[in-house]
Amino acid sequence: MVIVSDTTGASSACDTIRTLARRLPRLWYQREVRHFAVVGAAAVVVAACGAAPEPAPPNLSTTTPAAMGDIDPARIDRARYDLPPDYEVTDVSGRVAPVAQWGFGPGWTAEPGICGPISDPVVDPATVRGWSASGAGGIVYAVAAGGAVDIDPVTADQCATWTLSAGPTTGTVRSIEAPSIEGVQTHAMAAEALTVVEGGTETRSQATTVVASEGDHVVYVTVVTDPGSPNPALDGDFAASLLSETVAALRS
User: Fold this and answer.
1) Which residue spans of the chain are classified as CATH 3.40.1000?
2) Which of these, 72, 112, 132, 230, is most buried using a 10 Å CB contact count?
3) Judging by DSSP bridges, how do beta strands 217-225 and 138-145 pair with one another?
4) How many Å apart are CA 173 and CA 114, to the nearest integer?
5) CA 213, CA 215: separation in Å to the nearest integer?
């Protein structure tokens, strides 16, 4: 019988007993006393060495409902198919921030000033992708980019209503209810702009912009309409729906 009194040599003793235990089926013709001696030795060694460790479980990855594909601005063209019929589509270029889509030129100012970045998010220009489309119901913009910086919630709370001006154009911006889209943060704005040109001619426009943010990516859809147009205008519900479809397209 093998007796282990300390940890020195315990590993080899364990190995010896396990080897003998594996050979037990082949020792059935030996005297039973020898069989019991081996079994007794195994019991002593198991008590000293402890039970054999359980095999480690395999590495597992858990996917929650919010775990989705990353937003890729290069896929923005996939969202074109959600436009109404007969809309002409072109790639965006130049100034593509919401404030520009609303009709405010360079050099615009916001009051209060802290609200300005909400309409002109900081992004990496090299990552900007998007398109614009025009039709009877208005003008639609869809833009996605990386390198974005989240809007400070405190700033958003302080900018429920604010104003913009740029040359002959002035306007009011207000926060509106944003759509709920799984996995992203959203906010929405409604802007009304008035441009007075020489001779007193006035041009008015209305716009709805809905924005989705995820990490350092931002996606926004803007719908600009002419209040004086005889055609039915696209509304805020269309903008919210298109944003949801665009986010899904950028992840697929």
Assistant:
1) 73-251
2) 132
3) antiparallel
4) 13
5) 7
Map tokens 């805020």 to a residue: 236
Tell me the Cα Rg of the chain.
Answer: 35
- The Cβ of residue 237 has, within 10 Å, a number of other Cβ atoms equal to 11
- How many Å apart are CA 20 and CA 116, to the nearest integer? 80
Which is higher by pLDDT, 97 or 61?
A: 97
Q: Report how far residue 55's alpha carbon sits from residue 195's, in angstroms, rounded to the nearest whole number.
A: 74
The residue behind tokens 């911006």 is: 173
CA–CA distance, 139 with 44 (Å, rounded to integer): 84
Strand order in the sheet with 138-145: 88-91, 129-135, 138-145, 217-225, 202-214, 185-196, 169-176, 161-166, 109-111
Taking a C-beta distance cutoff of 8 angstroms, is the pair 65, 182 a contact? yes
pLDDT tens profile 100-140: 999 999 999 999 999 999 999 999 999 999 999 999 999 99
Residue 166's pLDDT band, with cuts at 50, 70 and 90, is very high
Asked if residue 230 has pLDDT above 70, the reply is yes
Distance (Å, whole) CA 58 – CA 115: 50
- The better pLDDT of the pair 39, 216 is held by 216
Query: CA separation (Å) from 62 to 67, 184, 197?
Result: 9, 19, 60
- pLDDT at position 218 is 96
Q: Tokens at residue 63, please?
A: 């996917």
Give the rounded percent of residues in the chain with a pLDDT score beyond 70: 73
pLDDT at 171 over 50: yes
Q: Is the peptide bond preceding residue 73 cis, with omega within 30 degrees of 0? A: no
